[in-house]
Write a structure and sequence with these properties.
By secondary structure, this protein is of the alpha/beta class. The protein has 2 domains: 215 residues, Rossmann fold; 45 residues, no CATH class.
Length: 271
């Protein structure tokens, strides 16, 4: 059961903007002194809705995505900021050497909102991000833990039953793929679901990668009900219970979003 935002660029963009204004910016400001002139990069920026509130606060932003049509949409939707040189949107792979040469050490804040769960080899990708940070810079990660009810992104299914059925993405890959194909889902949906099954990340594995690579968690918030659900379904966000937030593995089944601000350990100890 594909949701409205899966079918409408405008709805998806507006939800991103509203969620960032109401929830993401206040969360970031708890651990980061946000200010005019900050340089912000979003990887997996989509239509650029997450970045618009940063633009409104006078920050310099760069959005990067591997979907060329979404970059075109972002450039159009944020046309005024692009024309004024305050925003740039690029169809680019951040691993490209020319991108690293141009933007290495440039950003006070890097955003990955609902992106890290789509990226393969997170153990290599996450430490690579430090190459783009200024000294003392921060990275925001927001993602659905793999074992949460819809961690497989099965809500993109056209079939209403499959789109609302929780946890079946945890079945063995062959069985899961067979169910989706038997329900008549188009190949593009099947491929995306299988990709997510290969790259989905748990809270525990994410936190282990952070510790292993000498990052420190500056702030964390886990949600029983993801803030974006307010704009998708009209549901008020609910923070995860404190006792469950630190309960390894089990918490992933009942946490719909994990929000983290991380920075380099040496930079943290020097401040």
């Amino acid at each position: 059961m594909a949701l409205a935002q899966h079918l409408s660029i405008e709805i998806r963009y507006r939800q991103q903007v509203d969620n960032t204004r109401e929830f993401l910016l206040p969360f970031l400001s708890r651990s980061i002194p946000l200010h005019k002139g900050m340089k912000v990069m979003e990887i997996g920026c989509g239509e650029g809705g997450v970045l618009l509130p940063f633009i409104e606060q006078g920050m310099q932003v760069l959005g990067v995505d591997l979907n060329e049509s979404r970059i075109r949409n972002a450039t159009s939707l944020c046309a005024e900021a692009v024309a004024q040189g305050q925003a740039t949107f690029l169809y680019k792979n951040v691993f490209d050497q020319d991108f690293l040469v141009k933007y290495g050490g440039s950003f006070d804040l890097i955003l990955l909102k609902d992106t890290i769960e789509h990226i393969p080899d997170q153990e290599t990708f996450i430490p690579y991000l430090r190459k783009f940070l200024t000294k003392g810079g921060s990275i925001f990660f927001g993602f659905p833990p793999w074992r949460m009810p819809f961690g497989g992104h099965q809500q993109i299914c056209r079939n209403k039953v499959l789109g609302t059925l929780p946890w079946y993405h945890l079945l063995p890959k062959g069985l899961y793929k067979g169910i989706v194909k038997m329900a008549g889902e188009p190949q593009i949906v099947v491929d995306e679901l299988m990709d997510i099954k290969g790259t989905g990340i748990s809270l525990g594995r994410f936190e282990r990668i952070i510790r292993k690579n000498d990052f420190v968690v500056k702030d964390r918030m886990l949600f029983l009900l993801n803030p974006i659900y307010k704009f998708k379904f009209g549901w008020k966000p609910i923070e995860q219970a404190a006792w469950l937030a630190d309960f390894p593995w089990v918490r992933d089944f009942f946490t719909t979003a994990g929000w983290y601000v991380v920075g380099e350990k040496n930079a943290e100890s020097a401040t």
